Structures are given as structure tokens and as C-alpha cells.
């Protein structure tokens, strides 16, 4: 088991050491569960009381929490980022494959960089290019003329359709489908006429796609996810969507076709964004938001109703149903009042 001294960890994450820098750490843990040889973190001061009882060898924390810490500490402005960097350093997740399996089906003209590994029963079609260090899990299908950049990793049973382009250091979880046809049809007197989807899907560098998420290919132009985009499990990204750098989308969210989302946005889980709208940079939607028109200004937006006792919810819904009648009554009252005020003196 690989071990790191606190000095090595501090240098790795850019933290200041408080305590014995020679302490050896082999893994990360929670404040409540960590023990000998483990490091934990505190990123939310409301859990500060747990510092007194932790058995961790060291804790990554903010300077404001240091006086409450009873063990060695790595002090930095953003302890959660520090935890993420340490967890990456000590990551024990296995590779998606260990070698090029003899049970994989590989086209003769496929091109591989150094260190490419491919799991059993994967299919690599004609014209595919895999850069150095690419990992293809068991059962994946990489469609014709697709390209995958250096060190990108596909877990088992990922499907890439034809002409998909994946950048460097991407991670695609099991069951994801990249490049399926977008939902494009014309209606001819009640009969649906399919429109061929001849665009591509292009993922930038460091893009992550969650399990069972789908990213549809463009109809004429491309569907594009720029560098650093992260998408959770079971999301739907429709054709011709463009998502700006470092935007994060949580689980079960649906993005309608031809929508453009800016940089550094966040979209909470179970949200729905209609098609053909523009979302500005630095826009943040809370969970269960329904976005039916474009957003031009950065900020926080919400639309989902929080849960409440069922009886109160029924009353609220009943009130909403009566809003139209209430509005008409208010309008009649206003007209009546204005009519009296505006009438000639002799008519009052």
C-alpha cells in the first residue's frame, strides 16, 4: 500500500502543515470513520464539533477551524479541493481493462497509441483512432471513424456511434450512449418522416459523462460539450446542444435540442431545459427547475416547488386553480372603482 507523508501531501495540494510532517498516510476517510494512517477533511464548519472526537491522523481544514482540531492538520482556503486532490493521489479504482483482450473485435485499420487497453468483447470499428493511454472497457462499441484522445477512459458497455470525437482525459461511465440519432422528424399529414441526423458529437478535454446518459448527434451541425463539462447519470442531451466550459449538470436532467448553455453554469437534478434557448454564462438552476425561455443574466434561478404536507399542498393547488377567477374579480372591482372615480360630478 502506497503511503505519503504529510509533507508530501501538503506540497501536493498547496497546504500549510500544523503538526508532525513525517506522519504517514495511506488513505482517506470521514471524520467519524477515519483511523490510524488515514486523513479526513472538514469543509463545512457546522460539523466542527466532530474534530474533537476524530481518530484521523490528520485533517484538511480551513484556518478558521484549526483552533478546534486535536490532531495534525493541513490548512488551506478550500479544504474540499484539497480532499479531492488527495483522494485522486490515493485512488485505488482499477483500470477499465488490463490489456488488449484477444476476445475484442478490432478492425484492421484501427490506429492505437502506446498503452491502449481494450476489454473483452469490445468492438472497434473501421477508421477508429485511440490515442495513447486510452482505456476501453469490456463490451464497448466504438463506431466508425471515431476518435478518442489521450488517457480517456470508457467503462464497460459504453456505445460511441460513428464520427464521435472525444478529447483528452475524459471519463465515460457504463451504459452511456454518445452519438445516437437526435429526435428529428417532419410531420406529413400525421405521418412522421425521419430526418437523417448527419452531425457529430464532439467532447472537449476533461469531459465526464455519467452512467446511462445519452448525448445525441447533431442534425446538420454538431452537438458540442466543451472542456471541463461534467454530466451526471441518466441525463438526456439532445441534438445540436452546445454546453460551455466547466458547466455541471446533475442527474435526470433533460436539455432540449439546439439549446446553448454558457460557461460555468450548474443545473440541479431533475431539471428540464426547453429547446432553442440561450443560457448565459454563470447561470445556476436549482433542482427540478423548468426552464422555458432563455436566460440572459448570470445568477441563481429556481422553479420547482419544495415538498410540504399533503393537505397544505392540496390547498395550494386549489388556490392556484382559482387564480384566474380571482384575477377576473379583481379586474371587475378595479373597473368599478375607476368608473366611480372618473364619472362626472353630477353622476356620482
From TrEMBL:
Question: Which terms in the GO cellular component ontology are assigned?
Answer: membrane
- Please give the InterPro entries that the UniProt record associates with this protein: Hexapep, LpxD, Trimer_LpxA-like_sf, UDP_GlcNAc_AcTrfase_non-rep
Q: Name the catalysed reactions.
A: a UDP-3-O-[(3R)-3-hydroxyacyl]-alpha-D-glucosamine + a (3R)-hydroxyacyl-[ACP] = a UDP-2-N,3-O-bis[(3R)-3-hydroxyacyl]-alpha-D-glucosamine + holo-[ACP] + H(+)
Q: Does the keyword Cell wall biogenesis/degradation apply?
A: no
Residue ranges annotated for the UDP-3-O-[3-hydroxymyristoyl] glucosamine N-acyltransferase non-repeat region domain, each copy included: 23-89
Active site annotation, chain numbering: 239 (proton acceptor)
UniProt lists the family membership as follows: Belongs to the transferase hexapeptide repeat family. LpxD subfamily.
Show the NCBIfam families listed in the entry. lipid_A_lpxD, PRK00892.1
Q: What is this protein called?
A: UDP-3-O-acylglucosamine N-acyltransferase
Q: Which gene is the coding source of this polypeptide chain?
A: lpxD
Amino acid at each position: 500500500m502506497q503511503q505519503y507523508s504529510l509533507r508530501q501531501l501538503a506540497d501536493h495540494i498547496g497546504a500549510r502543515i500544523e503538526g508532525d510532517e513525517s506522519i504517514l498516510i495511506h488513505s482517506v476517510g470521514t471524520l467519524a470513520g477515519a483511523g490510524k494512517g488515514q486523513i479526513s477533511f472538514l469543509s463545512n464548519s457546522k460539523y466542527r464539533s466532530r474534530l474533537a472526537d476524530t481518530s484521523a491522523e490528520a485533517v484538511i481544514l480551513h484556518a478558521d477551524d484549526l483552533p478546534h482540531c486535536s490532531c495534525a492538520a493541513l490548512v488551506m482556503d478550500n479544504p474540499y479541493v484539497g480532499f479531492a486532490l488527495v483522494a485522486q493521489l490515493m485512488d485505488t479504482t482499477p483500470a477499465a481493462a488490463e490489456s488488449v483482450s484477444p476476445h475484442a473485435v478490432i478492425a484492421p485499420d484501427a490506429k492505437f497509441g502506446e498503452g491502449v487497453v481494450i476489454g473483452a468483447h469490445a468492438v472497434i470499428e473501421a477508421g477508429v483512432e485511440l490515442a495513447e493511454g486510452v482505456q476501453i472497457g469490456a463490451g464497448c462499441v466504438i463506431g466508425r471513424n471515431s476518435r478518442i484522445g489521450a488517457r480517456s477512459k470508457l467503462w464497460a458497455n459504453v456505445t460511441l456511434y460513428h464520427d464521435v470525437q472525444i478529447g483528452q482525459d475524459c471519463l465515460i461511465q457504463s451504459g452511456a450512449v454518445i452519438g445516437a440519432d437526435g429526435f428529428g422528424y417532419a410531420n406529413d399529414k400525421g405521418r412522421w418522416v425521419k430526418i437523417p441526423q448527419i452531425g457529430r458529437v464532439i467532447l472537449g478535454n476533461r469531459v465526464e459523462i455519467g452512467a446511462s446518459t445519452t448525448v445525441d448527434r447533431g442534425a446538420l451541425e454538431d452537438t458540442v460539450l466543451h472542456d471541463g463539462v461534467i454530466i451526471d447519470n441518466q441525463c438526456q442531451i439532445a441534438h445540436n446542444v452546445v454546453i460551455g466550459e466547466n458547466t455541471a449538470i446533475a442527474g435526470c436532467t433533460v436539455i432540449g435540442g439546439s439549446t446553448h448553455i454558457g460557461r460555468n453554469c450548474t443545473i440541479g437534478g431533475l431539471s428540464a431545459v426547453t429547446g432553442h434557448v440561450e443560457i448565459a454564462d454563470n447561470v445556476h438552476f436549482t433542482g427540478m427547475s423548468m426552464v422555458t425561455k432563455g436566460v440572459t443574466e448570470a445568477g441563481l434561478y429556481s422553479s420547482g416547488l419544495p415538498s410540504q404536507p399533503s393537505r397544505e399542498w392540496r390547498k395550494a393547488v386549489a388556490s392556484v386553480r382559482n387564480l384566474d377567477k380571482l384575477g377576473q374579480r379583481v379586474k371587475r372591482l378595479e373597473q368599478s372603482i375607476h368608473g366611480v372615480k372618473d364619472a362626472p360630478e353630477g353622476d356620482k
